[in-house]
Specification:
about 170 residues, alpha+beta, five-stranded mixed beta sheet, 6 helices, about 30% helix, globular, binds magnesium ion
Amino acid sequence: MAIVRVGIGTDLHRLAEGGRLILGHVAIEHTHGPVAHSDGDVVLHAMIDALAGAAGLPDIGEMFPDTDPAWRGADSGVLLTATLAKVAARGYRVVNVDATIHAQRPKLGPYKTAIRAEVARLLGIPLDAVSIKAKTGEGLDAVGRAEAIACTAVVGLSVAGCSDEEARGEK
Ligand code: MG
């Protein structure tokens, strides 16, 4: 399954007291939640932009404008699934996704397994094709002061229905 396209995506949301913190479609116990038009899931938002970048689609803001009431409080799983359909329509499929979540608090170690499983389920790819890593902000910048949570994601796409040999032009 040769990777023929790669894409990168990043997202950051400011945190405020209260609200519901969702990361990778998983509810996280925390005193603070994101200030966002949608559910503020930085993990899925970064992945959507990575998919869009790899497939040559418009970015998340253009595909799902925050001025559109349809996306108010939107479940980002729905946005990811809609993006995946656009990627498939272009003849690509997801090989793998690698993400790093930047959060000072809460500690995300206990949630990494659940997030990984949920992302694999949403993308329809094996568990070993998904990597979820977590870093603190070392007490520096907005992430380090626990004022924001951010995510960086990279995805690899292959051509749907194409063997490795075909992708390399050997067939
Ligand atoms: Mg976002």
